[in-house]
Every structure is written in structure tokens, then in C-alpha cells.
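cron nightly-structures :: item 1 of 1
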Amino acid sequence: QVQLAESGGGLVQAGGSLRLSCVVSGRTFSMYAMGWFRQAPGKEREFVAASSGRTGGTYYHDSVKGRFTISKDNAKNTVYLQMNSLKSEDTAVYYCAATPSVSQITTAEGFGYWGQGTQVTVSS
């Protein structure tokens, strides 16, 4: 069983930064693709960023390119989302997700394991 636990959310002013962390249980973390998704009130869950477990490739939603960075620390079984230049429209609950698959890692349907989410609120 794979379990994920996010942390690092909070309230920040527009233009500020936050770093989200997600600790993953399991011994094959290095082979997992990891993703970050977010869901704002009244909206569908949307893809934010993903890191391929096998190739190390990273993928971003256009709205966060150049501002957010996803990274993995295999020694700590942890994936991070560094968020800079935050905007009010980044306000959402952010979810960490994991999958042993190599396909569809920019869609929620591609992930089978999810964390509980952490709230990020950006004040303007």
C-alpha cells in the first residue's frame, strides 16, 4: 500500500513563495511518477506538474511554467513543489499523486494514489 502525506500549504501574499512537500511510503518510490494537482472551489481538479519516475522528465501546466518547479528526493521518498511568484489564481487545495505507470502522467486518471491535500491561499 502506498500512502502520501502533503505539507507546506498556507497563506501567502501575491508574489510570494511556498514549498509543498509530499512524503511517500513504499520502497519503490524512485520508480514512481509523481504529480501535483490542484482544485479550486467550484472547479475541477487540474494538473499542475509531474515528474517521470523512469526518465526524470518534468511536465508543467502552461499557467505555472517558469514559476513552479517539481523535484524528487529519492533518498527521502519525498517530492516537492516549489512555487514562486504566486498569484491569487493559484489559490486551491493541492494534491500529491503517485503512479507506477509511465503514461498519462499529466492527467488525474493516470494516478492511482493520492494524498489528502494541503490548502494554499494567495492573497492579493
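cron nightly-structures :: done
The chain has a mean pLDDT of 94.
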